[in-house]
Q: What sequence folds into this?
């Protein structure tokens, strides 16, 4: 197992290097100690090596290395000058070697596709919507001691009822109708009876023999009854590797539609 950076190279040694690079540039000044360019580089380098470190930890590391204390505000200013800002990290799923190779093969296969080839693809997906205003960051203006006044309360069922699942398909040449699964859940049978037969098959007929269906690896899409239905009607499905990032463009449509629904006042009831 590879040793950690702290054990491999002590902070004091690392600090001495930067002090030697900046020797002669520091002069004595009265008042509160200021951070030298060497200290700026020291803090920035530590942060880039340990992206999840905190400002208090950097203050402590700086004191261990230089035996001189600085404030948290000074550390933040040094990092900002170096172009480093505290942001939420991008979250991704862990991938094994087989999944990485499958992603790469899929990308290489489709990177050179022409517009005509993509025109034959119908991108489909489902999305859940709630008929209640679902925002934990909703703010109101109220006076002190009026928290429980009727005008300052928001009625909402504890069981979060009113949710629906909506399905749709889009392509470069058109789109299907929106379909609502009134049962609130999606199964392989409902996916076949309510989308494949009444929506996907007629749309495939308008495109012709080059038609390709793109749906993700959700369990209702991959059950035997759905596979048999697609094979029986000669409908080709695009291969979609496991854990593939969200490349379906219909996701942008759901995001836009969700924002529009949330902005409705009063919220929809049906």
A:
């Amino acid at each position: 197992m590879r040793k950690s950076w702290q054990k491999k190279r002590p902070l004091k040694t690392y600090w001495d290097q930067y002090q030697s690079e900046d020797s002669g540039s520091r002069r004595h000044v009265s008042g509160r100690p200021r951070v030298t360019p060497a200290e700026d580089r020291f803090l920035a380098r530590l942060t880039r090596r340990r992206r999840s470190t905190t400002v208090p930890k950097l203050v402590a590391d700086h004191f261990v290395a230089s035996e001189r204390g600085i404030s948290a505000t000074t550390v933040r200013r040094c990092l900002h000058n170096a172009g480093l800002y505290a942001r939420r990290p991008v979250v991704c799923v862990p991938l094994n070697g087989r999944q990485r190779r499958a992603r790469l093969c899929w990308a290489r296969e489709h990177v050179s596709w022409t517009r005509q080839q993509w025109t034959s693809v119908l991108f489909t997906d489902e999305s859940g919507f709630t008929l209640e205003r679902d925002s934990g960051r909703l703010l109101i203006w109220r006076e002190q001691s009026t928290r429980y006044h009727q005008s300052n309360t928001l009625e909402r069922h504890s069981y979060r009822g009113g949710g629906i699942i909506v399905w749709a398909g889009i392509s470069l040449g058109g789109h299907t109708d929106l379909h609502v699964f009134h049962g609130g859940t999606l199964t392989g049978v409902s996916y076949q009876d309510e989308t494949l037969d009444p929506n996907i098959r007629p749309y495939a007929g308008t495109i012709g023999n080059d038609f390709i269906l793109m749906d993700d690896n959700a369990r209702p899409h991959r059950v035997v009854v759905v596979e048999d239905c697609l094979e029986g009607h000669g409908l080709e499905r695009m291969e979609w590797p496991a854990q593939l990032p969200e490349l379906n463009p219909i996701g942008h449509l759901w995001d836009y539609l969700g924002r529009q629904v949330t902005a409705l006042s009063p919220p929809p009831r049906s």
Q: What stands out?
A: Confidence is low (pLDDT under 50) at residues 1-7. The longest strand covers residues 121-130.
